[in-house]
## 1
Amino acid sequence: MGFWTRRNWMTLAAIGGFVSVAAGAFAAHGVHDPKAQEWLRTGSTYGFLHTLATFACATFMTIGARRARLAPAFFLSGTVLFSGSLYAMALGAPRWFGAITPIGGLLFLIGWGMLAWAARGIDPPA
């Protein structure tokens, strides 16, 4: 399993939650440009939701969906690319960083697909 142990991805998810809350607070209190605020809020929302999804994977695994261990890599990588590119643009990075955002979105979709596939392993028909 290498780096993607439950301990490591849960730690990374907790850090992601921290960053998401900080970015949301910064959008509300530290930025006056409406576009930058929007990018920070969007990145924060998606980052936080996928942090929670990563934690949900641990629950899935405890009830028999072993394949759920595959989804956090996509959720966390997606957060780095999707939310990270929005945060970067809000802080002044060139607009071409926006081309990275959909790659993160695709990783989110793959993660959700993996989680759906994992759910099929719960309570299989007898």
Note: The mean pLDDT is 92.
## 2
Amino acid sequence: MTEHILFLTGSLAEKQLRSILEKMQPEFTYTVHQLGLKVSALMTTDMIARRLTDTFGATKIILPGRCRGDIIALSEKLGIPVERGTEEVKDLPLFFGKKIQIVNLDNYSVKIFAEITDAPNLTVLEILNRAAYYRRNGADVIDLGCLPSTPFPHMEDAISALKQAGFLVSLDSLDTVDLLRGGKAGADYLLSLHESTMWIADEVNATPIIIPETHTDLDSLDRAIKIMQAKNRPFVVDPILDPIHFGFTASIVRYHEVRKNHPDVEMMMGVGNITELTHADTAGMNAILMGMCSELNINHILATEVSNHAARAIKEADLARRIMFAAKEHDTLPKHINSGLMALHEPAAFPYSLDEIQELAAQIKDPSYRIQISENAVHIFNRDGFHSATDPFELFPKLGVENDGGHAFYLGVELARAEIAQKLGKRFNQDQSLDWGCAVDSTESEIDLHTFKPAGTTLKK
């Protein structure tokens, strides 16, 4: 039986929706129904329940992506499956054309060790608070970093408190005294042992992270692996990732060589030498590094958030590992799975051409301003005129809001957002904050611009 889909829309978008569906030549049949309002973004499920008296024989209803309300309750009332479509009608072909639609990012294989690099200088309570923050951002193990020549008298108390709070704990030091103390205090992992300090593994129950005896000595790493395999003890191998221009490419080769020689051993990659020591946005770095981990079956990383530019590194690594797991599981490229790592740009920033925006503007019969962007400019329009610029300051004298502080404030904020989006290549939706992905904490509060939104201003199509 051929699926018949009912598309609900507003009058401003109806013509374009019909055109797009016609060009798609879909395998399903469809009905487009204009619900008696101009702007489809103002549609709500309560409004649909009141106004929709005929479902036109549909087997499914697609709502505008910005339609607010309870679609489950609406579906139950109408007796038909109801879905939200795309926020922009231009994106409908992608919505229906995806061969796979990966939306479940619950699974991953890489454990994130989040290092508290200055643990000896923090109180136990401060360590617990930092650990809680890291866990909220995706950390699986809290790593206590010891500092050279810095006493850590409360190490045991810190490990005990973390364990009581339900954390897995690792201790990070090259000092054998620290490692023994940490292991005996109940740490789950010890970073790092090498061939000469493997005896520590016999004294404690912690899982050792093994590194080469000297920096690039893979022969010593091979011998340490054999020692642990003979003991039939779990262990993790870290060939050590080096910073760029200080052995980075060669260290990647080492990881590949260790994996080739030891296809079944657990491995770790310390990603901080790249994210911390490269002044570039870390989201892309984490994507590449997690992709390498996925290809080489590296199931542990050590991550840090020391530098200001790396302040979201653990959150980014968490999302990146989930994206890579999903891509690998579905045997696909890591594209169109989740946009959270695309903080600065987006795949389709400008869904409408200038001609299409001007066509929409010609339909406007009210004084409310709409704002849209195209590849070359920011556009603001109402029934009285259409104005374009790359600098919002050029637009202000044309808007007639000099004596309306609230309106001027609202339009200033929206035009500033539009300018940022237009310059960076981000998607702009009037009355919505720009999407910065996981570069921004979801807990950060935002001013509700609707508080300042004066009469005579409306959502764009």
Note: The chain has 15 helices and 15 strands.
## 3
Amino acid sequence: MTVADTLAEYFGFEEHDTDLRTEVIAGLTTFLTMSYVVVVAPGILSAAISVEGYDGGQVAQMLAIVTIVAAATATLVMALYANRPFAQAPGIGLMAFFAFTVVLAMGVPWQAALAAVFVEGIVFVALTAVGAREYVVELFPKPVKFAVGAGIGAFLAIIGLQQMRVVAGDPETFVTFNPIFAGDPIAVLSVLGLLFTLLLYVRGVRGSIIAGIVATGAAGYALDAAGVTAPQPNPEDAGFTLLDVSLTPDPVQPFYDVTPLVGAFLDGFEMVDPFTFALIVFTFFFVDFFDTAGTLTGVSQIADFLDEEGNLPEMDRPLMADAVGTTVGGMLGTSTVTTYIESSTGVEEGGRTGMTALVVALLFLAALVAVPLAAAIPLYASHIALVVVAIIMLRNVVDIAWDDVTHAVPAGLTILVMPFTFSIAYGIAAGIVSYPVAKAANGEWRDVRAGQWVLAALFVGYFAVRTGGFVGA
């Protein structure tokens, strides 16, 4: 029996009406569309993670390596255990939550945040094993599920536009258009790079996001070589706050030592009190629930995997891959792993089995040789991906029943609260709390399940704790 025959039998090509060539092309397509995570992850996580004795470029390479290994591990489990064409990696929205909400806003040490990710993964493994995770996924209000993606998208857009220096902080309006846009080469270059990336994406070019990032970064190096510099205004004089960004990062040497990150989560258990730690795990838990469940359902719908009731058969298997990936990610030093919506591109190319995911996993491992290049990408270039992904994530709003006020209220609050409070958790909480209230006010209290009232009560408690001084703001 040839290797091709063995693969066909193991993954069930005939049963899923596919073949090896189709699966390989699908895997390559998925990898190209999500490979930007290797570049973007170091930029986001390095805002929160610093290691004494190592410079920024070295930390960025550490983060790129652990991101790749976590993605490859989770996707291998998806391929060999779940036999689904879904690719996994640390989620961009969850990275932003990890870095900007938990570590920077709440003041939690990054080691403690990694410990929370690890515990979250263990809890997910246990709940998935007994089938409880599927039950909880089905418990979330439908309008909130559909709104989370758009809310996270708006949140990512603000982060991306700030790093691109398209917007700046303002004492009166909180955020404003960069007042010196025309004289700021980074802002101009970022917008041109974004337009170029969107042009490629609209044209259906595979790998359009990574191509746009590389092209923008290369242009930045060219401008730097020509002597062009980015203005660094004094916020007190200019009246606004502009991120301190340079055209090119410091020179980067190949660096593959990840020992400062691997196992760092063990130190985190002693860095925060048990109540605060439990709150962080709780929040990670629910944010990941939305992200993974929504993506699995959306991609499965494209692949025609859903049953008549709209559920994914044997959903526990891809959920287990997600749980294992998250656990490994926390141990290695990266944020929560989730299924990527970019998996839909491979599905559209005909990918129907775990062979597609196996190809993605192997390509991630091959990407280890390019880690130094990822650290050499300027932040304004890598954050173009956040704006593009934000646009893509907005499409879920069409599934919201806006003509039903009991759906419009929780969905609208979920979307609006996330970017305006700079917190994914606050947006989710606002949607879950308002859903049963809106239903009850409209005389539809019988439509609210008991578990949804419980979730609402839990999030009311969460708000009380976060605003009551128990956790640092």
Note: The radius of gyration is 22 Å.
## 4
Amino acid sequence: MFKTQGLPTELKVSYFIWVISGLLGLLFGLIGFFAIITVFAFAPGIAAILLIILILTLAVAAAQVVLAMKMKEGKEWARLALTIVAGISLVLTIFSAASAGGSSTGLGSNWFGFLVSAVAVVLMWLPNSQLWFKAVKGHA
């Protein structure tokens, strides 16, 4: 999982950004699960909705780790899928900021998370990364 020999520096950094953020998403999702269990005692309807959102979040975090590992293998479709994940992150961040009354600096804001994923996306599409994907495709 942590072997990145042969990857250009840009892809190594991008890979670790995706994997670490995905693993952190899984960890915080697990913590969130325990919080949702306590909410069931007070507001079961809200807790059920939160549980569905948490399951979707955990699925995205797990997919992010898997897609990063596929990207490391030279799969261009995984790179495209990670780019789409970052785009979805932008949309969700904007929606979250809008629903919070325009406040985009609070604890519920995800601008930092989006910016980190945007950096990872840019690194995946830089010319050196493009050359590596073409070279790997040529050897497959």
Note: Residues 9-139 form one domain.
